[in-house]
Amino acid sequence: MTSWWRALKREWLLYHLGDPRFRFMWDDPPADEWVALDCETTGLNTHRDEIISIGALRIVGDRLMTSERLELLVRPSRPISPESVRVHGLRESDVAGGLAPDDALMQLMRFIGSRPLVGYYLEFDLAMIDRAVFPMLGMGLPQERIEVSSLYYEYKRRQLPPYRQAESIDLRFATLMKDLDLPQRAAHDALNDAVMAGLAFVKLRHLLADG
Asked: Which pTM was predicted?
């Protein structure tokens, strides 16, 4: 996308922005900074289910800024499915005292700023977030999105000879972390998953840059 087209698109989006307090998300992002992000939800239906936990932390260069993290519980308006409880362990009683969704998302947007977003299967998390922020913004989040599993796929594909590059690659999170020799935390905890995605991003960025 050319620079003039990006500028035109930015102005069009800002013109239609529902809440001008969030114009800062369209600013130029700080150099070499990202936000790793993960959510837990009441279920897996992006049209109906809701966010119950958000974990995020800033990445500056090669450093995960664990002292600059966001860890929020969110109070949903619908029950948490038993299947989801078995995955992330969060019960309705655990999130009953959580933030209202709008309050949590306002905190998240201020925390992110204009920084690109990093995550593992980020498409799901951002589908949930975009649906939740749409009534406030009139649109979804504008930040660049970086998918860790896609970076890992590209890294593994480059290691294969041409005649094997059509082979499937195991993109499971545990496989990815083990192959990259990175420490693993308990999965399906929003902050833990954000930390692991951040670690993988930092390492893969260097591996891909080194060829």
From this structure: 0.88
